[in-house]
Design goal:
This protein has about 625 residues and is of the alpha/beta class. Helices cover about 50% and strands about 15% of the residues. It is elongated, with a radius of gyration of 34 Å.
Amino acid sequence: MALRRKRQNGWMGVVGRLTVDVAMLNVATVLAVLARLDFRATPWPWVYTLRFPGLVENLVFVAASVLLQTPLALWSYASLQDVERAALVVVITKVLVLPLLMATRGEVPWSGGAFAASAVLCFLFMAGMRGVARWRYGRYTRQDRVEEPVQHTMAAARVLIVGAGDAGDMVLREFEAHPKLGKVVGLVDDDVAKRGCTIRGVRVLGPVATIADMARRTRATQAVIAIPSHAAAVTRAVLSSLADTGVQVRTLPGMWELVDGSIHVDDLRPIQLEDLLARTPVSTDLGPVRDYVEGKRILVTGAGGSIGAEIVRQVARLNPSQLIMLGRGENRIFRIDRELQERQGVTCAVPVIGDMRDEARMTWLFDTYRPDIIFHAAAHKHVPLMEQNPEEAILNNVGGTRTLLRLAVSHGAERFVNISTDKAVNPVNFMGASKRIVELIVQANDGREHLRTTSVRFGNVLGSKGSVAEVFQKQLQETRTLRVTDPDMERFFMLIPEAVHLVLQAGALMQGRDIFVLWMGEPIRILDLARSYIKLAGLEVGRDASIIITGNRGNEKVTEELWSSTEHVVPTDYESIMRVECPACAEIAVLRPAVDALLDAARSHDANAMRAALHAIDPCINIP
């Protein structure tokens, strides 16, 4: 019964809105004709709507309104689109009635001026009624919201909105609807054409570069970044500029929330680490990955690490027949194994504790499980640590990978995807050099016994174990002092899900003699990242936390590269993934003795011999 009553009320509202529109059509006609007759006393304007042309006009108007569904639109939420539809109804009505009026002009006093005036007046009346309804609804809604008790950290805030576009206007409207939550004191935008202009009475004060000065002049306590899918460069610039102030920085939620108009002041969130990327995070279609993973036996080395564990999670969803998780760390493998069992209900996962340098253990693993596909994530990766222990970089990264590749070939594996690093390009340290040799070994084994191999190069992975974000967090907690090696040092950054998507897609895209890289935008200065990280923690640089320059920790590049001058970059089916075509490397028969010499030098702990052996394999390697 209640549902039937609601439906009846709904249809009554539709009929009521249509009736009002028809009434406005006729009032507009009467006023237009009266004006044409200089408002002389005559019954004609009132009789017109009851005669044949007037009745036809009313019928056409009703038909056009129903066809375009204008009575269905709630006036309280009227938009520009609703006004456009009202205009279209008037135009259709007048265009269709015009021939009838011209045909009967001998019988009906008719004037082109009055006809045009009636059309304009009808549209203005319809648009005006909708505008008034929208204004009244907004006014009373705001009053109701203000009367509600507000418990919010944003109370009494003075707000600067970064972005004087559509999103900025939406945020501004929301603050107007919630006046107790804060007052917008200015807009910030780099568009010169907007500078000095106002939106809803709020002035555009200037560019992002001057936001700190604007915050001081306006006594702002918050800055809201209102740029959908905004470039992280804007976020970093705002955070860096406001690092020395007490201004809190927030940003909008996802783009879809803006599209469906559901954004509210309550939805504004603090800046997150991924907002600092110099681009929009990348996600790819895993359909082609499922095609080669489903039903296969998959081996993931380094499965307990940040990247390896995420590879395990993603692969587990692609229905492999078996998922072998290899790692040296008992606790890490235990955690990822328990996660798969308890959270995802995965039954095909097999945890294996072992060292990839242990050839006997690896031989047992390949004999027992005979993996079809290997995702090789195990490696030593910390540059300063490997500079102090170069033999470990060589024996683990080079020796362990060669063992895995040899067993992959002998046991009929189909694909081998190696995870490399941007530090392997023109390397100047032992870690980068070891990964460059691994790339050459992987390339040399491509096509042996039907094995296809490739490598992927990562930049720094935000959120991974030992990443700069983790280091900064620990330093901030312990000493409130962040250590940056060089004020000009910059790095490429990516997120863990992006890195794993790149690894999985590489297995589908490989063509031989190739390496895959993710487009990571412009590199980010570590000093800017440090300032932004302090701001992310809600602290102020110079007051609550500090940054010190410590100097290079040993053979670290100031700027990294993603490919060398001898490599050719071509696009793939994914705009964000690039394929690096590598020049021909030495055959495996030639490479084997050179790698043996390198491993012998590592076992002898002879750093000079290791440098010479590395340079002999690849002349681009020059370690001081």
